[in-house]
Design goal:
The complex is a heterodimer of chains A (about 200) and B (about 230).
Chain A (H helix, E strand, L loop, with lengths): L1 H55 L4 E3 L2 E3 L17 E9 L5 E5 L7 E7 L4 E6 H4 L4 E6 L15 E4 L4 E9 L3 H12 L3 E3 L1
Parallel strand pairs in A: 7-8
Antiparallel strand pairs in A: 1-2, 3-9, 4-7, 4-10, 5-6, 5-9
Chain B lengths: L6 H30 L6 E3 L2 E3 L10 H11 L8 E6 L13 E7 L3 E10 L13 E3 L10 E7 L4 H6 L25 E4 L6 E10 L1 H5 L8 E5 L4
Parallel strand pairs in B: 7-8
Antiparallel strand pairs in B: 1-2, 2-3, 3-9, 4-7, 4-10, 5-6, 5-9
The chains are: A alpha+beta (about 200), B alpha+beta (about 230).
Chain lengths: ~200, ~230
């Protein structure tokens, strides 16, 4: 009788200990899931938040929807690792209401390119001077969603689809000696137009 | 029955809150570590690392985040390849206060450049406004090799006395006429201050072979000159 009672108590203790261990296992599991969730959320958000900050910034003089920042030097501290050999022009876009008509025709004997970036920082389209073959570019940039009115394609324009409604266009023009080539290179980059 | 007001219950809630806080901190810390860890980006080629996914639409979330932090608005690799060096060719961390000789074969590309950045990923402020050397302003020898020096200040006498025994850099090449430094001595890239240092090699319109296999780059050597503690 006494042995049976002792066994029952022992079993009860073991059961209590098991329940306690199980509770801690679930607690730690939940905490690990919180840590993993925070980890993945931060890694996912970082490029989008940085792009958002760049798209919302004042990036220089703006003409016809295009920013023309000065030639890159050490005072440029908005975008990390700027190339000091390139002159840039930028447009930010929002395609939620209407598409964007992009045109450029730089007459420049060296490298230039126009690249499009989605809101998550992916480079989904690029065209350089060799590919343009002296013809420049003429794009109608459309968002991922359907528009209330079917967009009209401007004459000679090519349709390009952005994976996100918001994004950024970056034009790069290679310049070896900005002061010597200022007039020609400025004329080349100022052919860029971004118009809704 | 424990309630929120009894001491035992309060202790439990505090412990729980502390543990949730710790879990959030662990999540934030590991995310920040993963994003800042450029050492895990792509393949190693000599002293340089290259990501084949940077800028591309098929980049994984870590590559995308690392590129956004350390090189936002990268182009895809058919257009441009980015090689980053944070250590010299002997595996020692690069320091702005040290003198390095960077030399090698010109990459097979339409145009390329090597730029020096401080550890905050921005350019070194210097009166000459010289931040990079490129295929446009570096003189190549008859075997297609280039050479230049990075240092906090122009150290021509040091360069003459420091031995270059291990590798065989080309003779002093200097700059082409479009550069701002005189010929006959090594082209000098200023890295003032005492911060960390990193070099970026940008290869624009790489040859199809190099674009297909970035590890095939004949990687430039980064050789520390003299003593630098």
């Amino acid at each position: 009788m006494k042995t049976q009672k002792m066994n029952r108590e022992k079993n009860r203790d073991a059961s209590r200990q098991f329940q306690h261990q199980r509770l801690w296992f679930y607690r730690l599991l939940v905490l690990a899931m919180i840590a993993a969730g925070v980890h993945f959320a931060v890694v996912w958000v970082v490029p989008r938040a940085i792009m958002q900050r760049v798209m919302d910034a004042q990036l220089g003089d703006q003409v016809a929807g295009v920013y023309f920042p000065p030639m890159t030097d050490a005072s440029q501290r908005r975008i990390v690792m700027p190339s000091p050999d390139l002159l840039y022009a930028l447009c930010t876009y929002d395609l939620s209401q209407q598409p964007l008509h992009i045109q450029a025709n730089p007459q420049w004997p060296h490298y230039w390119s126009v690249a499009l970036y989605a809101s998550n920082s992916d480079n989904f389209m690029v065209l350089n001077d060799t590919q343009a073959a002296g013809q420049g570019l003429n794009w109608l940039l459309l968002g991922p969603q359907a528009y209330a009115q079917v967009p009209v394609l401007p004459p000679g324009a090519k349709q390009v689809f952005s994976p996100s409604q918001r994004g950024l266009l970056l034009m790069r023009v290679l310049v070896s000696n900005y002061e010597a080539d200022r007039e020609r290179v400025e004329a080349a980059r100022r052919t860029l137009r971004c118009q809704n | 029955m424990p309630t929120k007001n009894n001491p035992s219950s309060r202790l439990k809630w505090r412990t729980l809150a502390l543990m949730v806080g710790l879990a959030i901190a662990v999540g934030l810390g590991t995310a920040w570590w993963a994003v800042r860890r450029t050492g895990s980006l792509g393949a190693q080629v000599g002293a340089w690392r290259v990501s084949t996914l940077a800028g591309g639409a098929n980049a994984d979330m870590y590559t995308r985040a690392r590129v956004a932090v350390g090189g936002l608005l990268a182009l895809n690799r058919e257009e441009t390849m980015y090689y980053l060096a944070q250590e010299d060719s002997q595996g020692r961390p690069l320091r702005a206060r040290c003198t390095y000789r960077i030399f090698g074969q010109a990459p097979a590309a339409r145009w390329w450049s090597i730029t020096a950045y401080a550890q905050d990923y921005f350019l070194f402020d210097n009166p000459a406004k010289r931040y990079s050397f490129s295929s446009g302003n570096l003189k190549l020898d008859d075997q297609g090799r280039f050479s230049f020096v990075s240092a906090p200040q122009a150290l021509v006498p040091v360069m003459e006395t420091a031995g270059h025994a291990k590798a065989s850099p080309p003779p002093s090449l200097g700059l082409t006429q479009s550069g701002s430094s005189g010929g006959g001595m090594d082209a000098w890239l200023p890295t003032p201050g005492d911060s960390g240092l990193l070099f970026t090699l940008r290869v624009y319109n790489p040859s199809p072979a190099l674009a297909a296999s970035p590890g095939q780059l004949n990687a430039p050597t980064i050789e520390r000159q003299g003593v630098c503690s």
